[in-house]
Design brief:
Low-confidence stretches: none
Protein name: Gamma-glutamyl-hercynylcysteine sulfoxide hydrolase
Pfam families: GATase_4 (PF13230)
Distance between the termini: 27 Å
Helix content: 10-25%
Oligomer: single chain
Largest sheet: 7 strands, antiparallel
Catalytic activity: gamma-L-glutamyl-hercynylcysteine S-oxide + H2O = S-(hercyn-2-yl)-L-cysteine S-oxide + L-glutamate
Organism: Streptomyces telluris
CATH architecture: 4-Layer Sandwich
Shape: globular
CATH class: Alpha Beta
Function: Catalyzes the hydrolysis of the gamma-glutamyl amide bond of hercynyl-gamma-L-glutamyl-L-cysteine sulfoxide to produce hercynylcysteine sulfoxide, a step in the biosynthesis pathway of ergothioneine.
Length: 251
Amino acid sequence: MCRHIAVLGPQEPIGASLADPPHSLVRQSWAPRRQRHGTVNADGFGVGWYAEGDPVPARYRRAGPVWADLSFADIARVVRTGALLAAVRDATAADADGEAAAAPFTAGPWLFSHNGAVAGWPDTAAPLAALLPPEALLRLAARCDSALVWALVEHRLRGGDAPGGALADTVAELAEAAPGSRLNLLLTDGTSIAATAWGDTLWYLAVPGGRTAVASEPYDDDPRWTEVPDRTLLTATRTGVALSPLKEPCP
């Protein structure tokens, strides 16, 4: 369920990453090649990007399928950026949240997406929600599992945690509280990317010259795409990618 991508690199139109490649995120909304859960990602989409000199990203989100949005096609053609995060959504369960449930979620310089599902939602996650301060719960953009996952990550970021640590600790908590969850998380501040592979596919492409893409699946057949092993934390910049194992929850 869901497909997402983050890209760091030179300034280029959004569509160069999201629409132009033969197996782009737009195509993955109806014809993903490696999606293990669900088949069509038509329950909303979004893209966040950074303008040069401004650390706070802009967002464009809609509740419907990306292929039906002609305004997005224009934006993708003319808006240029050196960093973005985008996602197409296949909802875990029916909801009335509309575009509020579509990634990317955001706060300050951050853009975030969750590809997966919290098992047993919402009952299994209730104890974790109770650990958040009231203001964090009041900031929830939607009632879906991904919005709560973002609240847990955001709470750690606001507390000073590094991006990779915030994702890793959140995954550990959720995996213990809700065994069987799929927790592929993706986070960027426009200068770095952090991501987790936990229960679904994750790939990265590092191109000489300062371009790095991290995605649920490759958007083309470039042989340099590398699959990230399950239970792995990825951290990346424009010049390098690092992988480290994630801790399994205690039995």
